[in-house]
Design brief:
The protein has about 220 residues and is mostly helical. It has 3 domains: about 45 residues, no CATH class; about 70 residues, no CATH class; about 55 residues, no CATH class. It is about 50% helix and about 5% strand. The protein is built from 8 helices and 4 strands. A two-stranded antiparallel sheet has the order 1-2. A hairpin with a 2-residue loop joins strand 3 and strand 4. The longest helix has 30 residues. The protein is elongated, with a radius of gyration of 34 Å. About 5% of the residues have low confidence.
Length: about 220
């Protein structure tokens, strides 16, 4: 047995960790000292009990982390920028509210307040529609009329400010913050700002000449 051990150790050193067993009358078998597959090169760490534990990261597949499945977004099935029903926020037996309808603040992206408002408007329309037994698009179109009347006066100035802000250079953003610090904009903010209503603040900024000069600089030079 000691001779066999010496021969195997010598073979492992010469071959870099591989030994081929060729018993007479039997198929050859390749063994690896490095716990690796001789065909694909995949290797494991030293075999220990933790490799067989489902909640241990050591034996887990590096691709799926041991879950056996992959999670991700299939781009061809992702939600389009516009809703499947088009630009409308209603269809037969459907009314989209809040984020699902794109009803978020253009200035901050916040949507909780508009979700609550649009949900209430949708509920009012749905109540009438259920009593009338009419759940088609024509009956539910009153929802869009309602939210546009209620929310568009806020959306328009917010969107205008957002479009202007997106075009500001880094230098212009710095100038605007410096203006906030030195030129008395904070009193305007304290007087006109409302958490869920930005229209008055935006209108005040547009009337404030130094702020207007920065925001509209690209349009006058």
């Amino acid at each position: 047995m000691s001779e066999w051990s010496a021969w195997i150790e010598t073979a492992l050193k010469v071959s870099g960790g591989l030994v081929v067993l060729a018993p007479e009358g039997a198929a050859e078998e390749t063994l690896s000292q490095s716990y690796s597959c001789v065909e694909c090169g995949t290797s494991l760490t030293e075999i220990t009990p933790r490799l067989f534990s489902f909640n241990s990261p050591y034996g887990a597949c590096p691709t799926c982390s041991g879950l056996g499945t992959l999670m991700g977004v299939e781009t061809y099935q992702s939600v389009p920028r516009q809703m499947p029903i088009g630009r409308r926020t209603y269809a037969d037996r459907v009314m989209a509210i809040g984020d699902a309808a794109g009803l978020v603040k253009p200035t901050t992206g916040g949507g909780i307040y508009y979700s609550i408002v649009s949900a209430q408007l949708a509920a009012d329309v749905l109540d009438d529609a259920l009593h009338a037994g009419q759940l088609g698009a024509k009956a539910l179109s009153a929802y869009e009329v309602s939210w546009r009347k209620r929310l568009m006066p806020e959306f328009r100035p917010q969107l205008a400010l957002r479009m202007l802000a997106q075009r500001l250079s880094d230098r212009e953003v710095d100038d605007l913050f410096e203006l906030v610090r030195t030129d008395g904009i904070m009193p305007i903010v304290r007087k006109t700002a409302r958490f869920n209503r930005h229209r008055d603040l935006i209108a005040a900024l547009f009337r404030h000449q130094p702020a207007r000069r920065i925001l509209f600089r690209r349009f006058v030079t």
